[in-house]
Amino acid sequence: MNDTTVAGAARAQFSIQRTYAASLEEAWALWTTKAGIESWWGPEGFEVTVTGLDLRPGGEMTYLMTAVAPEMAAFMKQSNMPLSTPCKVTYTEVSAPNRLAYKTLTDFVPGVEPYDVATVVELTAVGGKTALTITFDAMHDHAWTERARAGHESQMRKLDALLAAQGKGMAS
Predict the structure, then answer these.
(1) Domains of the chain by range and CATH?
(2) What is the pLDDT of residues 38-49, one digit of tens each?
């Protein structure tokens, strides 16, 4: 648990780990450049267009996330959410090429007051490979936390596929 709160309750965290055959610099670029981010960011069935990128503590990345797969568009409509959502992350730490921390404003859930979700990305060189650990705050309730977890896992599958196509996929 950490000290981040939503409606006064302590929030848990969850993590995702991967090891890739990519170099530390290649992995860092996928998290910190417009082209890198647009190549994989967002869950499967969504595309992302980066509209602003100020990579420094206090700087922001703004982007538009659009549901492009029919099943994702149907889910968004069923949830009374728009097909395209403007999103913003505010960087809290940028330590190239090993650590990136940011908070995401969660202001798209109908009936829920906006709140921040913290994310920490850690990249470590391990014998010519790159170990990746991403730690996320839980959302405001269990159902949305599970949606977030599924979304992050889906997003990571996009990163996995991108690196695999470059011959730099997951390593053991």
Answers:
(1) 5-41+92-165 (3.30.530.20)
(2) 999 998 999 999
